[in-house]
Amino acid sequence: MRTAYQQLIDEVCALLDAPATLEGRDFQLIAFGAHDSDDDLALDPVRTRSILGRGSTAAVRAWFEDFGITTAHAPVRIPPEPSAGVRTGRLCLPVRHGGVVYGYIWLLDDGALRLDDPRLDEAMAIARRAGALLAEDARGGARIGNLLHALLTGHADEGPAPAGELADALGPAADGPLVLLAVAPWEAPHELPATPPGALALTTLPGQRAGTAWALAALVRPPAARALARRLGVGAGRGPHGGLSAARHAVAELPAAWPEALGAARAAGASDRLGALAEWAEIGPYRLLTALPPRLPPDPAVLPLLRPEHRELAHTAETFLDHAGQATRTAEALGIHRQTLYYRVSRVEQLTGLDLDDGEDRLLLHLALKTAGW
């Protein structure tokens, strides 16, 4: 199917003698056409970002949508807007099917192409063909996503077992290895992006934690997992966190992989050390925390330390324990003098009644602090 999209965008480039891109309605890149040019148009920064990053920024999307492209049925001319990063104007050809917009064909606009140019009518016919393909893709993606949802939740309607039906729908792609990617929090539980490159199936599921009520689940092959996470917003500023399960070799094994993916995403949100995307195999003690019930009340001994006015002491204690109680390394990590560290550790002991020279007391405090951030 990706080859079909590429052929269509190549047709547009040849017809209009201009560089063009095809994006889904979520502004994720689907195909782009190469263009031989010595001018600056083909090097437009927004186009470059779309091609290299497979998408556009929120400011760029907002600027384009302000011109009514989501409801347009004809080409739309959009002027430059440097403050949004749009240095070159655009011609937008809405990609529609059955009254629904499924995407956009974008042309860099130097003003030479008139809106009454008959070639634009031919280009719109190509856009309608692309719309029919995107609609077909969306129907197939929705069915596969529903099967993945049924498999991961155990809520199957009448009919074949969801694992077998999902494997049949995936075809050769069902042969492992496969991983699940969790993206949490997912702010639009009833909206899924157009299936991006690399994703075999998408669905949304409860996030099982206050503040992350929903998560996106994506089925993907391991080599494509990190690139897919980036396309879904993981690691973008204050965007969501991602988690990857251990690999599975059969679709029927995926239900056990989802708690791993979701737990890894939660660990990424709890620990800066793990980065925005964490793998189940790499989250260490957080694997044990995934078995704890949600909203577990803190241990009474640690309650005083968790008060807002003692946030700095709690951070000091956690860093001290993360560094195995080694004062020099802890002081360096915190950027404080060792004497300041010793004073803070003594204050922690006074507040909690715990002896940080005692292994079990250390374990209790460390677990309590990790759980509080969980």
Count of folded domains: 3
CATH fold-type name of the largest domain: Beta-Lactamase
Based on CA atoms alone, the radius of gyration comes out at 26 Å
Inertia-based shape: elongated
The largest pleated sheet is described as: 5 strands, antiparallel
Number of helical stretches of at least 4 residues: 12
Give the name of the CATH architecture of the largest domain. 2-Layer Sandwich
Class derived from helix and strand content: alpha+beta
The pLDDT mean sits at: 86
List keywords for this structure.
Beta-Lactamase, Arc Repressor Mutant, subunit A, alpha+beta, 374 residues, 10 strands, elongated, five-stranded mixed β-sheet
Structural summary, described in words:
- The chain has 374 residues and is of the alpha+beta class.
- It has three domains: 2-137, Beta-Lactamase (2-Layer Sandwich); 156-289; 300-372, Orthogonal Bundle (Arc Repressor Mutant, subunit A), CATH 1.10.10.
- The protein contains twelve helices and ten strands.
- The protein has helices spanning 2-16, 45-53, 58-65, 118-153, 162-170, 225-231, 254-270, 286-289, 311-322, 327-334, 338-352, 359-372, and strands at residues 20-24, 29-32, 76-78, 89-97, 100-109, 179-184, 199-206, 214-220, 241-244, 277-279.
- Strands 2-1-5-4-3 form a five-stranded antiparallel β-sheet. Strands 7-8-6-9-10 form a five-stranded mixed β-sheet.
- Helix 7 (254-270) links the parallel strand 9 (241-244) and strand 10 (277-279).
- Helix 9 (311-322) crosses helix 10 (327-334), helix 9 (311-322) crosses helix 11 and helix 9 (311-322) crosses helix 12 (359-372).
- The two termini are 42 Å apart.
- The model has no long low-confidence stretch (mean pLDDT 86).
- InterPro entries: CdaR-like_regulators (IPR051448), Homeodomain-like_sf (IPR009057), PucR_C-HTH_dom (IPR025736), PucR_C-HTH_sf (IPR042070).
- Residues 313-370 form the PucR C-terminal helix-turn-helix domain.
- This is PucR family transcriptional regulator.
